[in-house]
């Protein structure tokens, strides 16, 4: 009976390999649940490790109006989570912050969890608040003493057979897949494929989505994935010439500098005939001490960036300027305003208007630089399209929308004009969706040809 049921679902609902793979994964879960249900027919609870994202916003003063720090100032946060009498998770101590986002791994159980927020002072620790929650309640937004807490389950929801038949749960899974399949992202479909092969094209993609102690960069991984696809299909790059070879390589400051200063130069032709494409997506942050801009690696606190724990923008551009290549395309989807792509505060007391940038690429006549926004603007995320807003319009232009004269060639000027179109481009949709300005900044040799499909 089950075999007939599955066969009919496959024939009726899935017509391509991707959907078939998803169905098989669903079937594997369904089969496991069926076997377990035969052993425990009255109650099926599968325990596993899950990840939860916890967003914390602490009030700026204690209930009595005094500062959290004895000397006046911000709290040093620590988050603890308990299940019954067992401590499950303790966050690193996070100094001088009101707002933070962390990811914690917990055992998925039916138990009540207790979350504690502490201000870890040298003299005496202060309790900020406590609250209780269960996994079944998530997503959850609650008041926790002197803080507001938002908790989300980052795992894909698992089937819970209790209360519904296997067939009902399977139908729900199929309907979910069908709904998602009905929402294609336009730039991910019909990617143009060039007949030309850019055998001397070398690329570096630095993508940082998850951060150790701060809010992740939404869609960074997806942005990098499709930048890579366009490089291969539309710009004719050899996939073996795109660094890093492992797209999931952890981007510490050491890895970032090694890739740009050591590995990348070894791929470039000695005669300077290589074409270079560099893409960065992740957090950017201004230093409140030196007013310099930094690219923020995975394990860095954006509030304390310096040349030891982050990549100074001046050094980044200077390192690129030293590379021997006939053409250099540099694309940056990050902002240095001290905010995230959702508009939340990333760096306290940031003054982006005071940023000091010594861009060595400006003097490089072979370089073109695309920056997603000016220093004081937010580089928005675009939830509707599941990409960074700048990267979405950048790829939309490469897809062909920037080729207004239909000559199958797209220059930097054409791409800039498309991205910054006041009626249909980045500035319009930034203002429409978030009521804040964003305009790409393009500099260098704007007559450079980026795409030539024939």
Task: Give an account of the 3D structure.
A hairpin with a 4-residue loop joins strand 17 (381-382) and strand 18. It is built from 9 helices and 21 strands. Mean pLDDT is 81; it is low at 1-17, 32-47, 158-162 and 347-356. It is globular. The chain starts with a helix and ends with a strand. The protein is α+β, with helices and mostly antiparallel strands and 454 residues long. It has helices at residues 2-13, 17-39, 166-181, 220-233, 253-267, 313-321, 389-401, 412-419, 426-434, and strands at 49-58, 77-83, 86-90, 99-107, 113-119, 126-133, 140-144, 147-153, 201-207, 242-243, 275-281, 284-286, 293-295, 311-312, 327-333, 367-371, 381-382, 387-388, 409-411, 441-444, 449-452. Strands 10-9-11-15-16-20 form a 6-stranded mixed β-sheet, sandwiched between helices. A 4-stranded antiparallel β-sheet has the order 4-1-8-7, with no helix packed on it. The protein has a 4-stranded antiparallel β-sheet with strand order 3-2-5-6, with no helix packed on it.
Defining key terms:
single chain; alpha+beta; 6-stranded mixed beta sheet; 26% helix; disordered N terminus
Low-confidence segments, ≥5 residues, pLDDT <50? 1-17, 32-47, 158-162, 347-356
- Terminal residue distance: 54 Å
Q: Give the proportion of residues in helices.
A: 25-40%
**Could you tell me the number of beta strands?**
21
Oligomeric assembly: single chain
Helix segment tally: 9
């Amino acid at each position: 009976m089950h075999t007939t049921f599955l066969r009919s679902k496959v024939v009726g609902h899935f017509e391509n390999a991707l959907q078939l793979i998803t169905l098989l994964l669903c079937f594997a879960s369904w089969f496991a649940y069926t076997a377990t249900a035969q052993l425990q027919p009255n109650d099926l609870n599968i325990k596993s490790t899950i990840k939860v994202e916890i967003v914390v916003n602490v009030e700026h003063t204690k209930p009595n109006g005094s500062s959290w720090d004895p000397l006046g100032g911000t709290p040093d946060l620590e988050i603890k989570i308990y299940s019954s009498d067992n401590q499950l998770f303790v966050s690193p101590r996070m100094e001088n912050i009101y707002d933070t986002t962390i990811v914690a791994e917990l055992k998925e159980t039916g138990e009540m969890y207790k979350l504690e927020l502490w201000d870890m002072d040298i003299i005496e620790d202060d309790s900020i608040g406590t609250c209780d929650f269960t996994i079944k309640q998530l997503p959850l937004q609650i008041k926790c003493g002197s803080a507001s807490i938002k908790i989300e389950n980052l795992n894909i929801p698992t089937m819970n057979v209790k209360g519904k038949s296997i067939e009902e749960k399977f139908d729900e899974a199929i309907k979910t897949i069908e709904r998602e399949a009905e929402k294609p992202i336009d730039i991910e479909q019909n990617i143009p494929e060039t007949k030309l092969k850019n055998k001397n094209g070398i690329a570096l993609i630095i993508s940082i989505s998850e951060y150790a102690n701060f809010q992740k960069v939404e869609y960074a991984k997806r942005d990098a994935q499709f930048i890579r696809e366009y490089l291969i299909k539309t710009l004719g790059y050899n996939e073996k010439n795109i660094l890093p070879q492992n797209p999931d390589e952890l981007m510490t400051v050491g890895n970032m500098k090694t890739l740009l200063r050591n590995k990348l130069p070894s791929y470039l032709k000695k005669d300077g005939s290589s074409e270079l494409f560099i893409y960065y997506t992740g957090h950017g942050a201004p230093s409140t001490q030196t007013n310099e801009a930094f690219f923020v690696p995975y394990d860095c606190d954006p509030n304390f960036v310096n040349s030891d724990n982050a990549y100074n923008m001046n050094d980044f551009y200077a390192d690129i300027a030293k590379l021997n290549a006939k053409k250099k395309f540099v694309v940056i989807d990050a902002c240095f305003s001290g905010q995230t792509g959702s508009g939340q505060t990333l760096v306290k007391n940031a003054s982006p208007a005071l940023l000091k940038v010594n861009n060595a690429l400006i003097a490089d006549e072979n370089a073109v630089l695309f920056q997603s926004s000016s220093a004081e603007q937010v580089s928005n995320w675009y939830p509707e399209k599941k990409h960074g807003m700048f990267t979405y319009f950048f790829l939309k232009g490469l897809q062909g929308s920037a080729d207004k004269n239909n000559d199958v060639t797209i220059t930097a000027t054409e791409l800039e004009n498309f991205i910054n179109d006041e009626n249909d481009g980045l500035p319009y949709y930034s203002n429409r969706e978030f009521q804040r300005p964003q305009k790409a900044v393009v500099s260098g040799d704007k007559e450079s040809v980026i795409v030539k499909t024939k």
